[in-house]
Amino acid sequence: NMVQGSYYGINLVWTSHDTISNNTANSNGTFSNSAGIKLDTSFYITITGNTTDSNLHGIYLLSSSNNNITANSLRSNGYSSGNGSGITLFMSAFNTISGNVIAQNSVGIAVDSSSSLLISNNSFTSNRVVSLALDSSSNVVAVQNTFDSITTGPLANPAHIFLHCLKQLRHWRL
Asked: pTM for the whole thing?
């Protein structure tokens, strides 16, 4: 399936035990929390094998828990505006982000006010501002991720990882 040109490409609200797989979500929304794929208060969702390109956020989880985001390609999300990200988690817990290609986004993965996360085996390449941003979050395990170059320019930050107000960061092995 291909979804493009809408506010949300794929949007699940108050759902559980679903799978979103093998979709392409391009050029969906540039306002607020619009995204190629969005979960809002959703649980036990598997997001796998999808491609997101040129959305404000590639994948956005809001108040969503126990989800798996694996083997997706997230490219050029939020890139032109300097806002947005490949993957954003806000107020979400017990999620796994693994095996994704996260390239040329404004921010690779942005985590805010979230907890109990596993971020592993992702490939970060040429994200514009920062590859992994963790803010006001706890119990984050980040292991075996690879980081390549960061794009330079007026919004560029020459760091792969941004940490702010973390309560607990465990097993920090890149």
From this structure: 0.89
| CA angle centred on 33, ends 154 and 46, rounded to 5° | 110
Residue whose C-alpha is closest to residue 103's, from 58, 48, 37, 47: 58
Sequence-distant (≥ 6) Cβ neighbours of residue 154 within 8 angstroms: none
Strand partners, 8: 35
- Nearest partner of 88 among 77, 76, 103, judged by Cα: 77
Rg, C-alpha atoms of the chain: 14
The amino acid occupying position 109 is I
- What is the spatial distance between Cα 60 and Cα 119, in angstroms, rounded to a whole number? 15
How far apart CA 145 and CA 3 sit, in angstroms, is: 29
Q: What is the pLDDT of residues 10-42, one digit of tens each?
A: 999 999 999 999 999 999 976 777 899 999 999
Look at phi and psi of residue 149 and say left if phi exceeds 0, alpha if psi is from -120 to 50, else beta.
Answer: beta
User: CA distances (Å), 172 to each of 49, 58, 101, 130, 135, in order?
Assistant: 26, 25, 20, 17, 15
* pLDDT one-digit tens code per residue, 51-95: 999 999 999 999 999 999 999 999 999 866 667 899 999 999 999
